[in-house]
Give the backbone structure.
Amino acid sequence: MNMEFNVRGMDFTRAGEASAKIKKALQLVGMEVSTIRKAVIVAYEAELNIVIHARQGILTLFVHPDRVEIIAEDEGPGIPDIALAMQEGYSTAPPHVREMGFGAGMGLPNIKRCSDHLDIDSRVNSGTRLKATIFNNINGE
Amino acid sequence: MQKYFHSVKLDKENCKGCTNCIKRCPTEAIRVREGQAQIIEERCIDCGECIRICPNRAKLAITDSMDRLADYKYTVVLPAPSLYAQFGPRVMPGQILGALLETGFDDYFEVAVGAEAVSQSLRQFLRGSYPRPLISSACPAVVRLMQVRFPGLLEHIVPIDTPMEISARMARESVMRQHGIKDEEIGVFFITPCPAKVTAVKQPYGDRSHVDGVISMTAIYGELLGRLDSQPAGERAVLSPPRGVGWGKAGGENHSIKGRSLLAVDGIHNVINVLEEIERGGLRDIDYVEAQSCTGGCIGGPLAPQNPFVSRVRMENLVKRLKAARPPLPDFPTDPEYYRLKKPILPLQGLKLSSDLDQAISMLGKVEKISADLPGLDCGSCGSPNCRALAEDIVRGYAETSYCVFKLREKLQVLAREIVDLSHLQPPAMRRDSSNGGGGEDGQK
């Protein structure tokens, strides 16, 4: 079972819509509360990364009984140094975006904190593909 | 057999089966079937939005009648702070308390006093460590909303009991101490501005509620007005601290906590937006969130008779006057445990498609497919609040695609075309009679 959402760059008014739909879908399925909570944060941060940095992208949700996978694929500037981008507080968001309260450099660290597996594949001036896996641990964490 | 108690009920006589309530409900808990609204019990949070929106007054709140006072040897009335704001500028809380006693109660205990005690307990709790931001437990509709739609945030709810419960407990203990009356002989009655408080008493978060009955503010209002008009005497001592009274309106709870990073949100749909933000990992810089289901706070409750914008002014003026009077604060219990919720607040399962995970996932796939095929106009004519909800209902087996008037019309068009096509077909024996006269030539030879 998968669901796809188109995300447009710089469209802040609609940022969060895809992750809200993802949350609703996971609640309908009855995934564990802790799984949903982590998946929502991962989906929202990934969605926001596309909005802030990329021209456009697609957020895809895969639902399996034992895990949730979230894939964010975008056309954008790419990440030159992934290790640096994973550091808390490191941000390349433009000043006007930061003034709106976004781009504090916590996006990727938050995604990493909330996922059990994280793969990032990025090409500069082309785009980024992020795949996060969250296990659905039936008896709590 | 009813699994859950709900104060909000349908009046079948008055319900026309319109779609106003289904579209307003924050948990999509109402459907229209066979010309009548039906409430899905697992999802209803008793916020009363449907009571407010129903043009036919077909939604009501079940509350207790004054007859229940006779069940107890000694009765105590607990006026919610919002009650004080329902009257004209000259009516003082002391007179309202006097009028309340005349309606048949033996004693009173002001919930504003309990609110002050809870404020002290909250201030103390906020000095410790806790998940940020904490969310208030005071509005029972918000707590139920979180149990149904935001179970992942339940650990953010401050584990401190509500002013209503704390007031009821203090009132009971005081009556037992002063009059030597047994716990079960004391009847504590709350005057409520909303149906959610009724549910909070009949189905409490913890093991028991200290409140025995809940009386609608609207129901007792007329009687109070009459008594206040006829004899302005009979004034009673007011212990309400100004900040405790302020709890009755939006922002008042935060005002009584003071000095931290505090967010106040009112109106159930605004509350949902804030909770979604917290769920996404936001608002970590906020210490405490005061969240109230009704716009304006408790004064905006569906059972509060006065216009909430008028009552807000009345309340603000009253708070000023009480501040100037500086009534002495009573002694509150100092043990922090006294104020703690006795049990954790657990999720309510009302949204799952199936209890079997594999099946639920395949059902979600079907929901997506059906939903993509529906018109997306969210008109509500099918009896479900929007197209996606109809898709869910179809997959759950509660609805059919033909409930959608647009889908039905499409089907009828196809059928009509087929009928026309069929009408052009003629059996061989009739072909000679066709209008152009040449229909039978082939068969003639």
